[in-house]
Design goal:
The structure holds 2 protein chains of 2 kinds. By secondary structure, chain A is α/β, with parallel strands linked by helices. Chain A contains 12 helices and 11 strands. Chain B starts with 23 loop residues before the first strand and ends with a helix. The interface between A and B is large, with 40 and 44 residues.
């Protein structure tokens, strides 16, 4: 299925109609001033603050040096839609290469989306530029995975945390910055006197706190956390998770929490989305996903997680998937999981399953009634199998 | 390349597992490194034993000395700056630290093999995997290139690499992470060693692949009745595969226990803290239990019990006296085999 991947900006992939998400209330603005003003609006708790629709990111694969020719594309993100509500934590889980970090970069506007929209307070941020884009970026911040490489070793902690103020001076007037940085250090549980130290003088957990302080500096509304604790020691992970939960309550933040550690995601998230090869396979509340998964991939993923209880060793039914994740440059036709799925039938190769509440659960108040992109979605009790 | 032993002294057939005595015994091992900031005491008196067919999990955070102990056993410690001032490593009753380099080389790879964490950086990128696998046979057994290649294909089949014959000439970058880790396992298995040391074998892998690799490792271990030392920080993996556990902190073993016992009734506050900090269902929305503070700097290990600055139970005695690994007993004094705790207050921890 080597389709020419010259997707124009408005070309929506045909197979990706996503009836699951609510209508987006767009805000009409004509001037930059209006756009900036609209971005200052407050969003009520529980209202969607970020709405992602059919987001696509294809990285071109080229051949030749002088006359570059596109021979294909890595379909890193291929039609992803979800809502992030104000004050909630949305967890995104998936294996490496499933596109979860690319989604994070797209939301930060660090990568230009191939197609699709990201509505922040009703405005499509993929089309913003200039002052309006700057205002958006102030409100969406990021905490990175590796605290050893995401801090500049030649800058002091004060410079690192204060750097956002250089770009957005309206947040902290010049004379006030040092005090602000010290306040931030205090908020994340570091000694404010450390302001002149360098990153190498801190441990991994402390560095991650510095990264979090930098993310908080501009009073953002959304923080995108890309594997924020996976580089940390077990005994330190809990400290950082607690800090992030405290900050969420204190500053009324919305988190998009990307991780591969399923138990931590469950602990911190209100809702969870499971990604596989650039698409969302299943999305729902933490209880729906963990206790009543209906997508075979989610079931396999959950059953593969080692449980820290030796007594569960014998009783557990484990679904061990065969093979590897297919290359996103040449994903399988139809359902992307079909090559590793034990339920796969002809239909799965022909038809892309939509992310929707499965027909058989529709209208019931069963916890299995959440969106799942599988033709044969059904419950399977994997966690409690005995 | 030197052929270190002639085909004539190909390893004797494996003695029966019940030949008595443990396979490997580490006694009071100390390892230190000289650094600019002083001497870093990475391992401070570690004792453990592994028998054939047994899985010992060594659990600890980074800097706890778990990998350094393994490197000392393998004899691949960088010396200098590393130094082994004290201790014995007995393999089938013989102290490997007293052996000559030649004798050790005969054991390394053939009797004791190691699986490293990061398969991509442990494999040579400019040599085909078949060549690297075959090296074991060429060097240790003196096989010809052709024979070695045939054996490599067999091995790749054994670790379930599809189309092994076609892929034997491929280079490491052409394999996925899980496949590379299988090649590392194949390499360790090549000469059917008695003992395998797996240093975080699945940390770099995704969970679905991790499950495949751990399954494979367990299956092969059963088949060959090998001893396995599994070094990890993942409490989930340990619960899945280990027979017994040694928990390390700041270069010491702070608790030993059979796997079921450890999770049910930890007898050291550090183990207890680790188990409590696992997110549990019924704690959703509450604060996670977190061990306060940071692991100690190895050049300045706290006096007394190294865990005392982070311990909720610490008393004066903990700051002055290093606790020995006490045997742990039931409240009425019945012995609990295989259990030990290096805490002055183990009784309060396990029974209190």
């Amino acid at each position: 299925m080597a389709e020419p991947s010259k997707l124009a900006k408005d070309d929506e992939p045909k197979d990706d109609a996503t009836p699951n998400v609510s209508e987006v209330e767009t805000v009409d603005v004509t001037t930059e001033e209006e756009a900036v003003a609209a971005l200052d609006a407050t969003v009520e708790r529980g209202e969607p603050i970020l709405q992602v629709r059919n987001l696509v990111k294809h990285f071109p694969l080229t051949q030749g040096i002088l006359f570059k020719k596109q021979i294909g594309a890595v379909k890193a993100v291929d039609g992803v839609s979800f809502d992030l509500y104000q004050g909630e934590t949305l967890g995104i889980v998936g294996e490496s290469g499933c596109g979860k970090s690319t989604v994070a970069k797209l939301l930060m506007n660090l990568e230009q989306a191939t197609a699709g929209e990201i509505f922040y307070k009703g405005q499509d941020i993929t089309r913003l530029s200039g002052r309006a884009l700057k205002a958006v970026r102030r409100n969406i911040q990021m905490v990175f995975q590796d605290p050893y490489t995401s801090l500049n070793p030649r800058m002091t902690v004060g410079d690192i945390i204060g750097e956002p103020f250089d770009i957005h001076p309206e947040v902290a007037p010049k004379g006030d910055r040092r005090r602000k940085v010290q306040e931030l250090l205090d908020v994340v549980g570091l000694n404010p006197e450390y302001i002149n130290r360098y990153p190498h003088q801190f441990s991994g957990g402390q560095r991650q706190r510095i990264g979090i302080a930098r993310g908080l500096a501009l009073n953002p509304e959304i923080i995108i956390c890309d594997e924020p604790v996976s580089a940390l020691d077990v005994s330190v992970q809990a400290q950082v998770i607690n800090l992030m939960e405290r900050l969420q309550d204190e500053f009324n933040l919305s988190y998009l929490f990307i991780a591969h550690d399923l138990s931590i995601v469950r602990h911190i998230s209100d809702r969870v989305g499971v990604m596989y090869l650039g698409k969302i396979a299943e999305i729902g509340t933490d209880e729906q996903i963990y206790e009543h998964p209906t997508h075979p991939y989610t079931q396999a993923l959950l059953s593969a997680v080692p449980v820290p209880d030796p007594d569960a060793r014998e009783g557990r039914e484990r679904i061990i998937l065969t093979g590897d994740v297919p290359s996103p440059a040449n994903p399988p036709s139809g359902c992307r999981f079909r090559t590793r799925c034990w339920k796969a039938q002809d239909k799965c190769a022909e038809e892309v399953p939509l992310l929707a509440i499965p027909e058989r659960f529709k209208g019931t108040d069963s916890p299995a009634a959440h969106e799942s992109a599988c033709h044969f979605a059904e419950e399977k009790d994997v966690v409690h199998a005995a | 390349m030197t052929i270190i032993d002639k085909p004539a002294d190909v390893p004797a057939p494996r003695p029966d597992a019940d030949s008595g005595g443990p396979l490997l015994e580490v006694r009071d091992l100390h390892v230190e490194f000289r650094t600019r900031d002083g001497v870093a005491k990475a391992v401070n008196g570690v004792n453990y034993t592994v028998s054939a067919g047994e899985t010992l999990a060594v659990l600890g955070e980074s800097g706890s000395g778990k990998s350094v102990t393994a490197q000392a056993i393998m004899g691949i410690l960088d010396m200098p700056p590393g130094r082994i001032p004290k201790g014995e490593i007995l393999f089938r009753g013989e102290d490997m630290l007293k052996m000559s380099e030649d004798e050790r080389r005969k054991i390394r790879g053939r009797k004791i093999a190691m699986i490293f964490q990061d398969a991509l950086s442990s494999l040579n990128p400019v040599l085909s995997v078949g060549y690297q696998l075959g090296e074991m046979f060429r060097v240790h057994l003196g096989l010809s290139k052709k024979e070695a290649k045939a054996r490599s294909i067999e091995l790749m089949d054994q670790v379930k690499i599809p189309a092994a014959a076609a892929r034997v000439g491929d280079y490491p970058h052409q394999f996925s992470g899980g496949m590379r880790q299988r090649i590392m396992i194949a390499m360790a298995l090549a000469l059917e060693p008695d003992l395998i040391i797996a240093d975080e074998p699945t940390t770099a892998l995704d969970v679905t692949v991790q499950a495949q690799v751990m399954d494979l490792l367990a299956e092969l271990q059963r088949e060959y009745n090998m001893g396995l030392i599994l070094i990890t920080h993942d409490l989930g993996v340990v619960a899945d595969v280990a027979d017994k556990i040694a928990v390390m902190y700041a270069g010491r073993i702070v608790e030993t226990a059979p796997v079921h016992e450890l999770y049910k009734r930890p007898s050291h506050p550090y183990t207890q803290g680790l188990l409590d900090s696992i997110p549990r269902l019924d704690q959703k929305g509450q604060e996670l239990y977190a061990i306060k503070g940071l692991p100690p700097n190895l050049t300045r290990i706290p006096s007394g019990c190294a865990f005392n600055p982070r311990c909720p139970k610490a008393q004066d005695i903990c700051r002055t006296e290093i606790p020995a690994l006490h045997p742990v007993t039931e409240q009425d004094g019945t012995e609990l085999p295989g259990r030990g705790s290096a805490c002055h207050f183990w009784k309060e921890t396990i029974h209190g």
